[in-house]
Amino acid sequence: MARALYPGSFDPVTNGHLDIIRRAAALFGHLRVAVFANPDKTGLLAPAERVALLREVLADDRRVTVDLGEGLVVRYAEREGFDVLVRGLRLPSDYEFEYPLALMNRHVSATGIETVFLPTRAEWSFVSSSLVRDLARHGASLAGLVPPAVERALREKWGGTPRRGAD
Amino acid sequence: MARALYPGSFDPVTNGHLDIIRRAAALFGHLRVAVFANPDKTGLLAPAERVALLREVLADDRRVTVDLGEGLVVRYAEREGFDVLVRGLRLPSDYEFEYPLALMNRHVSATGIETVFLPTRAEWSFVSSSLVRDLARHGASLAGLVPPAVERALREKWGGTPRRGAD
Amino acid sequence: MARALYPGSFDPVTNGHLDIIRRAAALFGHLRVAVFANPDKTGLLAPAERVALLREVLADDRRVTVDLGEGLVVRYAEREGFDVLVRGLRLPSDYEFEYPLALMNRHVSATGIETVFLPTRAEWSFVSSSLVRDLARHGASLAGLVPPAVERALREKWGGTPRRGAD
Amino acid sequence: MARALYPGSFDPVTNGHLDIIRRAAALFGHLRVAVFANPDKTGLLAPAERVALLREVLADDRRVTVDLGEGLVVRYAEREGFDVLVRGLRLPSDYEFEYPLALMNRHVSATGIETVFLPTRAEWSFVSSSLVRDLARHGASLAGLVPPAVERALREKWGGTPRRGAD
Amino acid sequence: MARALYPGSFDPVTNGHLDIIRRAAALFGHLRVAVFANPDKTGLLAPAERVALLREVLADDRRVTVDLGEGLVVRYAEREGFDVLVRGLRLPSDYEFEYPLALMNRHVSATGIETVFLPTRAEWSFVSSSLVRDLARHGASLAGLVPPAVERALREKWGGTPRRGAD
Amino acid sequence: MARALYPGSFDPVTNGHLDIIRRAAALFGHLRVAVFANPDKTGLLAPAERVALLREVLADDRRVTVDLGEGLVVRYAEREGFDVLVRGLRLPSDYEFEYPLALMNRHVSATGIETVFLPTRAEWSFVSSSLVRDLARHGASLAGLVPPAVERALREKWGGTPRRGAD
Questions:
Q1: Domain spanning D4-125: which superfamily?
Q2: If you measure CA to CA, which chain A residue comes closest to F140?
Q3: pTM of the model
């Protein structure tokens, strides 16, 4: 059976990511989540912090393992024995970005790695890590957007109050 | 493990469909292909002909079964015990059409049926059944667009010559 | 203050339409909803039935009036003294359809009629009258997609059972 | 030098089409405009009427010839010795429709026919034959959207008054 | 009646922005324009200069007030008592960017703030602050793209000649 | 006859660019390729290196000349006597970026410069300089994506092995 990898920057992991993770884990029976940080950008959280938060919020799900990726996603996937990459899709602009990447990954892969896309649930369709980072930097509540552990971690870092609409 | 269904109108099946079928069968270990005809449209081929052609071109692949669907896709999937629908994506307009459908199928499903999308290979990204039908009606060659059995069947119906560029 | 008109085919009115109606009525203090049927298409419901259902589900909202439109939307708007058309937007393909229409309506209008777009709430972003019609024709439950009065009316017409996931 | 063909349905020709025609004629030194009618649709104007109107409005431009096309565009182009198809683009949805068609035309062509796209000027970006047909059927003014000869021809057919905003 | 806020970076204000401002002011009877600068980017003009230019070009319009915003747009709007955000839309990619933002603003707002979109007039559909900045940096004429006061201010800063096509 | 210019950053030139170059040269009988570097970005290759590589891979094509551009593309085109800009299009997002630019170039040009778009062949539709740069930085094989001379040049700079799937 296909072994599935969900690569991403997860800065931070959102409720939308979590939904994709649990649904992909159910589809494939197992899922590896791997954090790949863009070396050209300073993120909100260090890559190791992102891994730690993912492990904390996914601690109850034995189908999921979390790792810190490195280098090209496709090389990591080949080295670790994955057959398929998982990516979530919200609006069509996501697909415009992901489609060439999926074809390129297959082209450069020695094993013909596949990409499958899962459609994000409607209720998370507007949630992105970049909008969440923007809220966090202004100390706004992140309730309903990220898991509580993530909100706590960001609040310690950036301040702000926990109650939505009252911050 | 997830049981996968690839619903479509397949009027006719193209090389792009075949590519999605073989890749999805490899991912899930098995694939059911089901022909759902739009009752409001007169197709090029009768639904039973489409099923027969799919069975002919997929005869060598034991992971794949072909069926004639009926009614709502999501009800067929529930009744037959499928967990996930497979759809191929070419340009973003495909995704604009498929995204609401995937969310709606999940909404009306008692079992929370999933949809996964596979990106079409670059070389088939411009091939659609509707463009193929248009060529077939004008007797043009379909070489490289559909399996030979499909080209033969359409030529018997519509005439035209087999050689590309010479029709 | 601007007088606002929400034109549409409403075949049938969905929960997504209702959300746009109530939000537009709050923004402008008043809203006229007008049913314009496409003369080239046979709808699911007759235009007068659509008006009756809209009136029933909006009976409690004194800011909203419902009418049967006729002819060009822009002429109806001028004749009845409206300054602005309201339209809901879901995916970008909605906007691709609506943008030229808005510019054309302004061009042919003697009074320079405006169009304002409201973004559909995430939870209704996948709901369209055409997907609802497809479910209704197959007797599927419409719970959560349309107001109860609309579901009752369609069930009387098309049969099917009221419980979601059990039809 | 490349010989250029501008195929279309031109039902009716609009100011947007005319702009593309004059710019393409300047680029290539010559342009053939060919009317291809969709046999599955009843148009507003008969194909021969469309050709006659194109000839009338383009009578002053010696670089342009007008013809009634037939069959597949790509076969017509090969038979008549054209190397390149010209198409105008407005919104991205135009390109989503045209891109697969351009690749398909090249694929089925014995001579590797090219397609070049010209971007529509901003002022005509919302003008389409289908919106013009809709206005014409309701007797609205078409001033600024089509050449005067086309407006006259449609008014004789459908009635309506010539003044914008007063019809 | 709804109180409307038009937030943006306005670096610099263009004729497209001005058109949206005047139309939104007419729709709502009043409009607040607020400059929010992206703290991560060095702009062409300092935020205070953008405010000064907006005030200069809008001095004749008593319905419009201009302010320097700060922090999250949604918090500014709540604090100042606005009910609705106004945004202009050009191509669909604008909407892809704005749609998640509108849903997010509503989500984090204690008062359920709305966003309404106005379609940009065709003649300004290609004008953006970023393309204007690029022209300004090369000393090209900005005639027809920005108000004369803005062109003067940028020319003092960047040089270049005022005549189009002759710079 | 129209004189054609293909401006771009070409960091590095890909097989997709080469295909556009040869097809545009055939259409117009001649093509100037000009490298315009974005002064705000540090590229992978210096502008002079990009010119040298273009000259090397195009040495056999007497219809094509290569130059280092400078300043605004439209000013360079006017100064050098070009009538038309050539750009390749892959996915619709390319067109969303290029359409306003084409209209702006025409607006600021004293001579009304045109832009024509050529659709990228399906097999190169996923190839972009930015994805190639990402592969090069990780030492991955670029076989099938760029001309051999470009692959050699990048390998000398970044290391990595030449065999696909084995790097």
A1: HUPs (3.40.50.620)
A2: A108
A3: 0.94
